[in-house]
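Many introductory courses stop at the sequence. We go one step further.
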Amino acid sequence: MSKTEQLDNLFDEWRRKQADEWQQWNEGKKDKSSYLKRYMEHENLKKINPAKSFTPDGIIDKEAWNNGKKILFILKEANGQWMLDENLEDNTVEIDNGEFWFRKIVIDNINHNIKRKLTKLSFEKFGESELKAVAYMNINKRGGAKSELKSVLNEYINEYKEYIKREIEIIAPEKICICCGKNKAYVSTLEEIIQELECKPKVEKYYHPAARIKWEKYKEGIDNI
């Protein structure tokens, strides 16, 4: 079974778990004070459909990946703010509608800040000139709004750590770049997950590509020196 097929199967399981988790929470079978409460109360998150929103990710291009340096970039969550802004009703937005958005902007060469930053990092730090040769992954597959909610990410990664681990194992990178900033509980949890992997990739940490810092500081990374 190819990596693409394995990831598709994993994402099918992941979607079902997200839907089941939301149903159990609504039926009072899960702690009502959990992070899912934010999806009912937060000004932006309450527009997201927590049962159906899912942002797939993974390897951009199979052939390029096989011939590349096996770099996996891990970010927090897809920013669905533009979709939320276009909808006024609660719990109606399905973030990304199941589309691997980062693959689309790479393959279609769409101008995007995250693509520009990761292209530059990939080339200058690792000598990988083709961004389609990398893999891209978000922690929170439900997606989020323009502002990160640490409480949501902290609880999501603990709820789905086995799925996150399986995805990384399927991709089997040689290098992982965690692009989530510093001093975050969910980054520590992610590092613990990575330490359990059989593939034992080298790990470096960076700020989020959208962070407003000078390039020289950005490419130094966080605790990489």
